[in-house]
Amino acid sequence: MSLSAKDKLAVKTIFDKVAHKAEDIGSEALARTLFVYPQTKTYFSHWADLSPGSPQVKKHGLTIMKGVLSAVELIDDLKGGLLTLSELHAFMLRVDPANFKIINHNLLVVLSMMFPDDFTPEVHVSVDKFLAQVSLALSEKYR
Amino acid sequence: MVEWTEFERTTIQDIFSKMNYDVVGQQSLARCLIVYPWTQRYFGNFGNLYNAAAIMGNPMVAAHGRVVLHGLDKAVKNMDNIKAAYAELSVLHSEKLHVDPDNFRLLGDCLTVVVAAQLGAAFTPEVQAAFQKFLAVVISSLQRQYH
Prior knowledge:
By secondary structure, chain A is mainly alpha-helical. Chain A has helices at residues 5-18, 22-36, 55-73, 78-81, 83-93, 98-114, 121-139. Chain A is globular and about 45 Å long. The two termini of chain A are 22 Å apart. The model of chain A has no long low-confidence stretch (mean pLDDT 96). Chain B is mainly alpha-helical. Chain B has helices at residues 6-17, 21-35, 52-57, 59-77, 82-85, 87-96, 102-119, 125-143.
């Protein structure tokens, strides 16, 4: 399920359009991950406040979204481009890769909520494919 | 037995009472067929599903989307025993339609995305959690009679 030229264009177009809302998108997606899938809170036991809207969720949501936006720039070589981030997730954070699917789902939900006219079915499939490839690249160094 | 909080019950009743079944049904099923094209395997006699535009404009997809959404009504009206309410539907999907249960989750995800677009900011994390819990119970009930 690799990315066609059409997919890459759709991904670049939508993320260009929504980049100015990076903090809102990232923090909403993270907030929903923590709230709707409470098992994900186990990765953030060191945070004081895990509720939607907390400063830590906002800050980290932006970090995550910046990562996604940088992946868009690296769309032609995700495995190579995301090597360092993969090492971070594999050796330091040790996030179970099953969780990548969860945050991806919530990114799709938030994009749909905030940009209903732009998040058409065709854009949805391209973004879903892209996020799946990003997750694969992030999982690269796990074992 | 599934325990529902007052908030969850109200949220589900609210979402479905305000929903335009024609629109949401068509959009969810069409989105599923576009985003997860292998689901088209169940709709061989639906005619033209060759591209997104064809799927979005296909009247059989629209009609069937409506059927599926009205099927969800059964669960909305029987929240305290969805498992029993869905026994026949489960047998239908397993024995007659031969639908791989993984597909229920795919359609459920598309329905979530469509409802999110409809509700916008009103689709808060709390509402999303209630909605996804409801869909999870529906999906589990639909899988019950598979063997």
